[in-house]
User: Fold Cupin-like domain-containing protein from Pelomonas lactea.
Amino acid sequence: MSAHALGDVPADVLRSTQPVVLRGLVAHWPMVQAARRSDAEFCDYLRGFGAAKRLLVWRGSADIGGRFFYNDDLSGFNFERQRSTLEVVLGELLAGSPDALYVGSTEIDAAFPALRRHNDLPVLAGFDPIVSLWLGNRIRVAPHFDLPDNIACVVAGRRRFTLFPPEQVGNLYIGPLDLTPAGQPISLVDQAHPDLDRFPRYAEALRHAQVFELEPGDALFLPSQWWHGVESLDAVSGLVNFWWRQSPPYMDTPFNALMMALLTLRDLPPAQRDAWRALFDHYVFDANAETAAHIPPAARGLLNPISDHGARQVRALLLSRLNR
Assistant:
């Protein structure tokens, strides 16, 4: 799908539950124009917004093949986290460093506020998005999901996105939940070289995969919780993404509920798990206007719609229970 106009995202895209490619959406951005001329001009453009800025950099040796991942026994990772300046990182990228270099999710409003003023999507202003810059060379990021909706804008180098719908989680062989490279659980399958003898169900995931290759200026709308692996295909690559949630700010991440469920539900006897499944279906997944209609509104408590004040009360109650 093409954008209706440069920088314009159709309203139906923002409500989509399927990925949407927006060709040329940000082709007018100055940083994209610079990247289209040359890698050197792209790097010079970024330097103008704070060459001395210190950034968190992931660095891996040449033998990881650009794949930021775990070590052999999944007790740690195959890369190091370091601090460096934007000037140094850009210099290494232009010099063709043999190391795998990755500057992940640097919030532009905090680190480079002037950069966004010249490279923005005003159509998203009402969503108050988190806007992040990503830089690197030829790197591979394992399939993972993000809670917010996302518009990922390729600003330098080509990128290949491999997307899987949320229901394919069982075929992606997800790694540890409590030790992750960047906070989100990742697939243990090397998407560039899948070992189907070790991970046979991944073949089914591939049947449902969507693969898109984007050029500088192109963008991709990624709905919440779609699994996505990303490959940077050129020696200098850059991406800007816009994250926002359709739910109110006071709603907590459902991932906390998943961790509590692992703690409290998973190891119950089967009959008890079935009973709790029925309760969750009744109060959460199948909840509707009839769920609490028999209770006077003033007496419904948690069964009323949650507000900011109500969310604070729930958190306080949970903390008091967890700290017993």
Notes: The first strand starts at residue 20 and ends at 22. The two ends are 54 Å apart (CA to CA).
